[in-house]
Design goal:
The chain is mainly α and 350 residues long. It is built from 16 helices and two strands. It has a two-stranded antiparallel sheet.
């Protein structure tokens, strides 16, 4: 037996849950790591500029992600598969890329720069209940009572997290309430991701994971770059080739992007949908622990109250029978199932 075969046999013996847990931990700490990396850049300014700005991290991170996806899914990008995609599907893929590949990440990264990481994590949990509501409204999907109860509790928890927050530097007035800009941007990103999920369910079920992921990341990266250039001028990316940026981005990409994606994809392929969903649902807990251990962020009373309801809501929404899980698999394609599970994970660092 060759060394390659020995390694494959050894890897095949590793349970899928271990891959999933490893990926979930990586994704869970991604928000705190992203903030930490930019803080390191603030300590090493170049002519008064932060070379590891969030824009640079997002842009370079997307390029690294695109490289990894290209290697993983290169076989799916062939003439035969591409010809099967209709003009209508390409249109909706472009909308998805704009919303989830450019706008949503931009809002999340900007939120991380102006508000508490725990706020971004908790308010980002708006996406699953909103997706569920839109699915019922537009796709006429049937939901269980536990999903409804869980979504309502999560929504109340998110609302309390926002309402009970102490005043911040970046505040805006909305309907007589003062709300942090970071919270508004995070909520807007969640709405964009929820709309993306509905479009994908309705129009992109036949598009493979590889084509979907690469196209979304590629077009999203281009759109983000163009948007940043228009808003901030080209000089905004003048430090994108800075040695200190690439020094940290190579480590960031290796741990958060490459390792996270490979572990998640491996675990997703060899684990059941129920186990994958359950493990992914604990990401908010890991994110809060990561913010404390890496950044020293201690949850506020608002985050404790709102976060507790959000976590209870997430756990309740996971209660499903085997029959319901089989129905999910039968009516949804692999791409949609993957998107549904990843919606519960939230921000993954890119």
């Amino acid at each position: 037996m060759t060394k390659t075969k020995k390694w494959r046999v050894l890897l095949d013996k590793i349970p899928g849950q271990l891959y999933l847990w490893s990926a979930t931990v990586i994704f869970g700490i991604s928000s705190a790591v992203t903030r930490k990396v930019t803080d390191l850049g603030a300590d090493n300014l170049i002519d008064g500029r932060n070379p590891i700005s969030l824009c640079n991290v997002l842009f370079v991170g997307n390029l690294c992600s695109l490289l990894v996806l290209g290697i993983i899914y290169s076989t799916e990008w062939n003439k035969n598969n591409l010809q099967k995609i209709t003009t209508k599907s390409w249109f909706y893929l472009s909308i998805v890329a704009t919303l989830s590949g450019a706008l949503a990440p931009s809002f999340i990264f900007h939120s991380l720069s102006i508000t508490n990481v725990n706020n971004v994590v908790l308010i980002g949990r708006l996406e699953p209940p909103l997706t569920l509501a839109l699915s019922v409204l537009f796709l006429k999907e049937k939901v269980t009572k536990w999903q409804v109860i869980g979504s309502v509790l999560a929504f109340i928890g998110i609302a309390l997290t926002i309402i009970l927050q102490p005043p911040e530097k970046s505040m805006i007035e909305m309907g007589g309430f003062s709300i942090g800009l970071g919270e508004v941007l995070t909520a807007t990103a969640s709405v964009a991701m929820a709309i993306t999920a509905i479009i994908s369910k309705q129009y992109l079920s036949q598009v493979s994971i590889g084509i979907y992921s690469i196209f979304r990341t590629a077009l999203g990266t281009v759109l983000f770059f163009c948007l940043a250039v228009i808003l901030y001028t080209p000089e905004h990316f003048m430090d994108v080739f800075s040695p200190i940026l690439w020094q940290w981005m190579l480590l960031y990409a290796a741990v958060i992007i490459v390792s996270g994606q490979l572990l998640w994809l491996r675990g997703f392929k060899i684990s059941s949908v129920s186990k994958t969903t359950l493990i992914g649902s604990v990401t908010p807990v890991i994110s809060i622990l990561g913010a404390y251990l890496i950044l020293g962020e201690i949850p506020t009373s608002a985050q404790y109250i709102g976060g507790s309801l959000v976590l209870i809501g997430i756990l309740l929404s996971q209660i499903q029978t085997k029959q319901q899980i089989h129905q999910l698999i039968s009516r949804m394609g692999l791409t949609q199932i993957k998107q549904k599970i990843e919606a519960g994970i939230g921000f993954k660092g890119y």
